[in-house]
């Protein structure tokens, strides 16, 4: 008795010592180490314990961290070759995209430091190197050692992902007809390249140039290898035996067209029948009949169906085989009398011998209007020598030819491009195929351009305004003009400056009349003529301080003569503004806001800038929809500054919406401005399950048990489930392919068919187009024998505690156990420190199978152990609570 007491005292002292050392030990750093990997590969990324944990009693952990799931895919976690190798495989749960929780526990405590657990990821491929960060979440005990003692501190890390060397074939897929060629190219890698195909009987390729030649019907792929050995393989290259095509053609209104349907070489294909659907524009054409005389189908039986929705079905057959190439047959079409235009005629599903698919190429078949020739652009036009103006003809019968009234002054091409040669006036004439003509308006041709640039100037005592000319081919040595400007009693022209201009050094005279705001200018030279462009001269204006701001001074040039009238200038008058005002600009002019659901608020931003010299003020409001709101309705922007305005979109109805943001500003030139905003609700399915776990209980071997799961689509797009499969064949689903409309639900059947006396734990994976795919349903069931029968009831053969389900769980789980004989039994739950936290059974039980619910709502996350004891026997199962 004393010896037992001493052992208990010593054991308690050891446990107290471990607890004290853990409680008073410093924080333990747990985290990631930075590393580098190659994109497109799988890699192991360990979580390390960087501090010594020997003697700290660490027997369990839970780590929760985030990562970039848009580029990284979690694969698995393992404990081999780590500090926790003796604990067995860790438990992990992908809580949400980019957030993973891993936990483990063992009967022995950790020693030393090093790798705690190894996590495997698959990395995507970036076109350039990038950093991806991993961050451990230590808030709310999401990441702890034991139950929080010793304390954990984290170290975040990153992986640097480099781009793998690669080459890329273009195009990736292609559809060809026998006898055609296609040039393939490659991007990346290092020359020289070697080309080949996976099926050289279907298509051959020049191994150095990459030109593919289609040989016979079938499927192949193109392979390219660079000098470094890097390889790329294209997608499917399909070669078909023949093709149908329509060539572009046209007829006038009311005319009949025998439309030829062309076919490539059909010799040797054994074709004795065929079918295609001709799609046409019923507003322009009406099918009438078919003609086979003189065609490949001469003597064949050909039938056409009644046109349905602008589609004509054509079927043909014969006892002899089709051969040769050319016109397969004619389809007689009648052009409408009431309208005209162009449309495509194309084929739908051209098939021969019911199994030979043919390629097809559509043609544009036009109905032309019988009307006078119209020439556009109409009206008077201006053109500079050397520039071109495109004229178009319509309404007549093409092709058109063109002429110009004075070939010394302009040239016009066969396509209607008019090019100025010399100053003067001309007209262009279009001639159609049946003699109709149409004339343009007068085209005034000028040798060059003389312009007053519109300018906004900051206030100053004087301002200089240049007169600009473009280059000319004639050249000038003299110029005279009259300048008129609006002034009132403020801005006055005080000087004409030639220095630094094209007439620098010329003899220049000018006379300014300040009373009526005019000036006459004359300049000439005896040296070389001017043909280049630039500043002709500069007008200098005096701006008194009393000048109102802003003030706009309009400049008008008249009586302009260069030399004796040639070269002839095209004059663009203008103005300059003495500004002291705000200048409003906004970017972008339109924006799009996308949100994921009705009632969800999202936003975009607009930037208002003030490029003026005075403070910009503006009121703003939304017009057109009540689903948009603004962050503010009034703004004030200092000169050369900007503000950002947030526009919110919170839809209350389905469908897109549009509104305008109106600005009322103090900018005199932009007093009322509108920006457009579009709100869109993204369409996507959402998969919702009625249950996430199923317990089939005990089922006899050779029998089945069914249950149902309701699958609901709470999204806005059709939910498409492509497969439902379990990782153990004893669990099946019917059906496994399902389509669920938005707002609808589908009831699927799950079946358990045990094959052995054991406890089955598995999961169904539901693969779909939902963002949560694959979704998981955890399942469990017990297979029982039907042989041991006592008093008409099945009696288990062995004493057994089955694994709880679900596991991990939150907050409750189910525990099954079986007894071969009647006896007193206890079922208790302990935490990772060995403390009893719940007694689930403590009584005499008859032989049989039992099920117990364990509710851990009041317990914290971590590792727990269930212990079943009876008749000197016991079994233990590990339970994982994850909240």
How many H/I helical runs? 1
Task: Output the radius of gyration.
Answer: 43 Å
CATH topology (level 3) name of the largest domain: Immunoglobulin-like
Low-confidence stretches: 1-24, 787-792
Largest sheet: 7 strands, mixed
Q: What form results from the Cα inertia axes?
A: extended
- Overall average residue pLDDT: 90
Please tell me about this protein's structure.
This protein folds into eight domains: 20-162, Immunoglobulin-like (Sandwich); 167-240, Immunoglobulin-like; 243-368, Immunoglobulin-like (Sandwich), CATH 2.60.40; 374-446, Immunoglobulin-like (Sandwich), CATH 2.60.40.10; 449-574, Immunoglobulin-like (Sandwich); 584-673, Immunoglobulin-like, CATH 2.60.40.10; 683-787, Immunoglobulins (Immunoglobulin-like, Sandwich); 793-883, Macroglobulin (MG2) domain (Immunoglobulin-like, Sandwich), CATH 2.60.40.1930. 3% of the residues lie in helices and 54% in strands. It has one helix and 84 strands. Strands 2, 4, 6, 7, 9, 10 and 12 form a seven-stranded mixed beta sheet that branches. The longest helix is centred in the N-terminal third of the chain and has 23 residues, at 2-24.
